[in-house]
Amino acid sequence: MGMAMGAGRKSGRGRRGVPRYGAMADINMTPFIDVMLVLLIIFMVAAPLLTSGVAVDLPQSKAGALNVEQKPIAIAINDQGQVFLMDQAVADADVLDRLRDLAKEGPDARVYVRASKVVPYGRVAQIMGELTSAGYKKVALVTDPTSP
After folding, report:
1. At 56, is the secondary structure helix, strand, or coil?
2. Which of 130, 85, 133 shows the shortest CA–CA distance to 112?
3. 36: confidence class by pLDDT, cuts 50, 70, 90
4. What confidence tens digit (pLDDT) does each residue in 103-148 have?
5. pLDDT digits (tens, 9 = 90+) for 37-85
6. Which terminal CB of the chain, N or C, has fewer other CB atoms within 10 Å?
7. Nearest-CA neighbor of 138 among 66, 52, 53, 59?
């Protein structure tokens, strides 16, 4: 009688202390979800910081994006015609000198020119002329990729 009671009882161990059930190979989802939520919050905070520093209303174009293997030099012209070189305001008299200083590192660097829609074409052409006189050959105009 004592045998019948012991045989009917289910325990986690089989004969000689060997577990009846195999090892659990499932991923513990709680830490995984915690890590994903933390990464989501980090990207939500960091994404607005990835945009360029100077706000410019770009013209629209159907041109595709360029492949860039090195960090380009960025020039922006805001609505008032003020020039920003690498997100730092530059006086008109100092633009050529600053461009020549950057050209010492390598005149083959790619230069991106961003200008607002309301900036006169003559102002953009003036900056483009200073770029060519500084020795830059790879100059690209940045536009808004959405079509009207």
Report:
1. coil
2. 85
3. very high
4. 766 667 788 888 888 888 888 888 888 888 888 888 888 877 765 5
5. 999 998 888 776 666 566 666 666 666 665 556 677 888 888 888 888 8
6. N
7. 66
Q: Tokens 């159907």 — which residue?
A: 62
Which residues fall within 8 angstroms of residue 31, CB to CB, at 6 or more apart?
Answer: none
CA-based nearest residue to 136, from 112, 109, 114: 109
Taking the C-alpha atoms of residue 113 and residue 142, their distance in angstroms, rounded to an integer, is 6
Tell me phi and psi for residue 75, to 5 degrees.
-120, 130
Measured in degrees and rounded to the nearest 5, phi and psi for residue 47 equal: -60, -45
Residue 88 pLDDT greater than 60, yes or no: yes
Q: What angle do CA 121, 126, 130 make, to 5 degrees?
A: 145
Which pair of tokens denotes residue 115?
């200008």
**Other Cβ atoms within 10 Å of 99 Cβ, number:** 23
